[in-house]
């Protein structure tokens, strides 16, 4: 067999290899990220990618995105401490059906979570702590 055949065969096999990076432990309200290295043909923005995250009764599905340089990412902010499981769904077979687990630990003292609306004119963090927005421009 020719060298050209072997080069094409190796290139084809490598195009199906997906490297997945993920953390093992994350705080509540912090970012958990899955990262996939995948070479694709055509427009990389046309690839469909998502993951479903489950912890007890909590279930969230999050869409992924193309981040350039053959990298796809899924970012998720868990709001409940515990053992989380995930499974991916993708239009690319090598990124489809990837499973894993990670642990979410309680938030640290300076991590109050996302900002939420509290009534009509106030804001609060997810843990109930009052949030006071500050700005330098008033739009009236």
TrEMBL record:
Domain DUF5060: 25-90
InterPro entries assigned to the protein according to its UniProt record, in alphabetical order: DUF5060, Ig-like_fold
Protein name in UniProt: DUF5060 domain-containing protein
Species per Swiss-Prot/TrEMBL record: human gut metagenome
């Amino acid at each position: 067999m020719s060298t050209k055949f072997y080069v094409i065969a190796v290139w084809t096999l490598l195009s199906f290899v997906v490297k997945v990076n993920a953390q093992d432990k994350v705080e509540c309200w912090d970012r958990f990220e899955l990262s996939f290295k995948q070479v694709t043909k055509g427009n990389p923005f046309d690839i469909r990618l998502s993951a479903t995250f489950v912890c007890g009764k909590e279930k969230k599905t999050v869409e992924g995105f193309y981040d350039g340089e053959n990298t796809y990412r899924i970012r998720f902010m868990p709001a409940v401490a515990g053992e989380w499981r995930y499974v991916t769904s993708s239009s690319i077979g090598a990124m489809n059906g990837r499973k894993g687990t990670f642990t979410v630990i309680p938030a640290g003292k300076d991590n109050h979570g996302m900002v939420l609306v509290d009534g009509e004119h106030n804001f609060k963090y997810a843990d109930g702590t009052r949030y006071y927005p500050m700005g330098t421009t008033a739009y009236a």
